[in-house]
Specification:
The chain has 488 residues and is of the alpha/beta class. It has helices at 2-25, 28-57, 65-74, 108-111, 120-132, 144-154, 170-185, 202-206, 245-259, 287-297, 349-352, 368-383, 386-407, 435-445, 469-487, and strands at residues 87-91, 94-97, 102-105, 163-167, 189-193, 225-228, 266-271, 301-305, 329-332, 343-347, 412-418, 421-426, 448-449, 451-452, 458-461. It is built from 15 helices and 15 strands. The strands form three sheets. A seven-stranded mixed beta sheet has the order 4-10-9-8-7-5-6, sandwiched between helices. A four-stranded mixed beta sheet has the order 1-2-3-13. The protein has a four-stranded antiparallel beta sheet with strand order 11-12-15-14, covered by helices on one side. Helix 6 packs parallel to helix 12, helix 9 (245-259) runs parallel beside helix 10 and helix 13 packs parallel to helix 15 (469-487). It binds pyridoxal-5'-phosphate (PLP).
Length: 488
Amino acid sequence: MLSRLQQQVTTTNNMVNKLTYLGQVTKPLLFNELITTRRNFLGSLTKERDEEEREEKLGVRQMTEKEIKDSKESIFAGVARVSDMVLTSGKGLYVYDIYGNKYLDFTSGIGALSTGHCHPKVTEAVIQQAGRLVHSQIGIAHHETILKLVQKLKGFFPSQLNSYFFWNSGSEAVEAAIKVARLATKKPNIICFQGGYHGRTFGAMAMTTSKNCFTTGVGPLPTGFIHAPYPYMGHMPKGITSADMSDYCIEEMERILLQKTTASDTAAVIIEPILGEGGYVVPPSDFLFRLKKICEKNNMLLICDEVQTGFGRTGTMFAFEHFGIVPDIVTIAKGFGSGYPISGIVTRKELSDLQPPGSMGGTYAGNAVACAAALATLEIFEEEKLVENSIAKGKRLRKGLDELAKKGSYNIKEVRGLGLMQAIEFDHKVVPKGTAYQIIKELQKEKMISLTSGAFETLRFVPSLTINDEEVDEGLDKLNKVFKRVFN
Ligand SMILES: Cc1ncc(COP(=O)(O)O)c(C=O)c1O
């Protein structure tokens, strides 16, 4: 099916491209007609694909049970998965499996699907780009879409963050940020945070301590990464209250600079403005500001890893905006591309200009189709006011979670989060180990997909930013039902 569509797109495009020259030179009217014809044609392809999706939703399967089982067993066991479902399609907040079951998705592919599953505008942009230019390779030539994307992104970042590099995954963006920091400062060490998650490549793993399953048995990991305490009540020593937490962590940071890595050896501090995989922990409001001051005083760069928190997730375009700071380097991915593999780093030109030519790059870096998806995503952010929706629906979700926490004796330690990045942490000293996992399994029976987070008993809720009131309420109803069942 796909190859037939691709063939049709290519044939039409070739036709249009050939006639473009003629049309521009001789008959502008004919040219315009052709463009309209192409648009209508691409529209009909989208309709055809929708038909196919509908078939899949009805459970018309393409594979036998035996093939499905064999394929599942042939995929690496090292991939942990919260469900055994096989999905065939998705629209907005819902996904469909091969049996035609419909699920409410409160995971958005771990925050990647900011505009929901298969937003028509993103799909259309991808189809158009796929028929025009798929790949030009960043080391060979610019493509027009990447340049448009840069122009668009400039409107979302503070003006001093004016230099961009695009890559594929969040982990790669983190590695690239470390490269910028080391080359710019000519210093080796990086301070990162206990409980942080930065990815699964080796440098990123060396900075990751949210859970030990990511790194156990795969060392040695690169050296030069020093871990500082993140202001998270769950990690604080006895006697430290939430009011003391910021002071304690700042003092620890200063101690690290005296005892573990001197400022003259330290290139940067990397932090998730809100811990993601580590449990959706929001730091005290003054912490990032004080951290930035320490960085400035010691000539160290501040890197904000916004891979999960970026693009409206927390109710501002970037989470650093909550804390009144502008970092030196920002990593972006996930919600940036509506599910297409694109990531990036954004910094000041004076820093990125210190990199020798050739030090950055990669075959698929800034891939044209992924850039088209990102560009469409940013347009949707403006047209559909997704940041505002994140605030409004985040409030509704939070209210519902707070009410749920008050209702029963569920041993909830904390409900926390910002915008549409919300979590419930149970008291892991009281509830049985695996409680959070049991809840997400029960939610699956209620046709809802959700996630756990971190090393403790935490549920996280990270739906697409396009969610509406009814979908928030549907999720809360299912949660209420499951909590009653699990705890009574
Ligand atoms: C804050 C943060 N950084 C980096 C990553 C790694 O991104 P990726 O899985 O795209 O490599 C993640 C992924 O969850 C993340 O949440």
